[in-house]
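@channel sequence for tomorrow's demo:
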Amino acid sequence: MKTKEEFEEYFNTTIKSVIEPLEIERLNLKTEYDKNTKKLQKTAITIIAIAIAISIILPGLHMLIMFGGMGFIGVLYFKIFKIQLGLYNPKTTLEIKRTLVESFMSFYGNDFKYYDTKDISKDLVDCRLLDGANTKTYCAEYYVDSLIKDEILPDEGTKVELIGLSYGNLDSSGKSIKLPIGQFIIIDFNKNFNGEFIILEGKSLVDKFGGMSRIKLEDNEFEGKFDFFGTDQIEGRYILTPSLIQRIKCYQGKMNSIKISFVKNKIYIIKVMKTPIFDVKMDRSLYDMEPMLEYYNVLNMIYGIVDELNLNTRIWTR
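structure tokens (generated this afternoon):
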């Protein structure tokens, strides 16, 4: 586990220098964007003022002035559009994601491989956390395959997959777009089990969910914050140990909108987010700590759960 202070120091001393060329490029594009935007505003005001004056003095020429002015404004709009493309083009976005994710993973010091994309359709169907996972079009904005080693038993480790998840859809004009969902995490569990189980935030009144029944636990605080459904009462309590319950409660306080399932000897976690963590914005610095700390919280949750599983691995055998 890494502390927030350790991460902030690593970010300021290491990650900043790695992403500095990308930040300089963003600043240059923003400067050019702002300059042309101001020029566009001044031009539009000037043309409107001239057109109004001419329409009073020479009524027959004001339309010609207006058309000429609109043409010039169109040229400026196109220039601004090209500047935006320079920042938001897929190549730049991929480079920023790759650079930041690899820097984060290096901070934790474990073996990993980064991929720009991956087919994740089967995993989504298995996890039971997304409606219509077998019919809708989901995609990985990035994919990290990692082995988190046990600090005490370095020859042992837990396989973890970390995915930036988005959903393909069509906008009002029929153009294909990607809508962000959040972080999709797959962790190898340290115990074999046959059933299926799901943890959802919020307390509902229903006792059934997707063919599963509510599982009773002895932690009233947890049951007040989460619904726990599964196919087997005994196996559910065997999987969700008191110490793992404490971990989940701790991270729920730091990160809202978490869904967790236990299926086919794996833990699936979806951390829902309104906007992508590595979303590129013209007016937001790549040095902005707020989205970085959000991703740090996601990784710390993963490593905390894996630490718990590694501890249990020394006690239980698969």
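heads up for whoever presents: Confidence is low (pLDDT under 50) at residues 314-318.
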